[in-house]
Amino acid sequence: MNFEKLLSKKYICLYxxxxxxxxxxxxxxxxxxxxxxxxxxxxxxxxxxxxKSNCVHIYQAEDVLEHIEMEKLPAIINEIYRILxxxxxxxLSLPDYQCDVLCKRxxxxxxxxIIFDPGGGGDFVNGRVIGGGHLWFPxxxxxxxxxxxxxxxxxxxxxxxxxxxxxxxxxxNYEIGVVRRTPDFDSRVQNPRRPLxxxxxxxx
Length: 204
What we know:
By secondary structure, the protein is α/β, with parallel strands linked by helices. It is 15% helix and 29% strand. It has four helices and twelve strands; from the N terminus they run H-E-E-E-E-H-E-H-E-E-E-E-H-E-E-E. The chain starts with a helix and ends with a strand.
């Protein structure tokens, strides 16, 4: 697959990263750092897309943006906005570090701040995350602030912990894109039922 062939599709759905080998993801074309095949285009999402504006129907980023420096994200998200069609949806999911599952497994500094998540990949060497691990540890308020720095105005949060630590769970339309790290699919947060990811739709 390449961007020229992508534009010949009537309904364009992009996925940031390698496509999970599951039937529920079959409508997506993955944007992969290393793969180039019938289901993937080799493309670093930090770069501009060599396609026209207003051509993509759905863009999903599932557990990807936490691996990129926060200061780069507004520009990355604004480029997604550019390529989305009017009423197109950017579905974003990020690990929610107010969830007990993620908080307990993470390494913290002397003030209790999370500095490394061993479950997020990479290594922690001399106070730095290397090798592709999580570079920041998302919580609702900072994700909300991030999105308000972008061109998106229609923003709807589905799953998250609010500022009091209360877990908010609203129904998600999985026809747009499946988010596996939710209580609908992940047994770690099914009893009691609570958020594992921050899930939000941004509509152009």
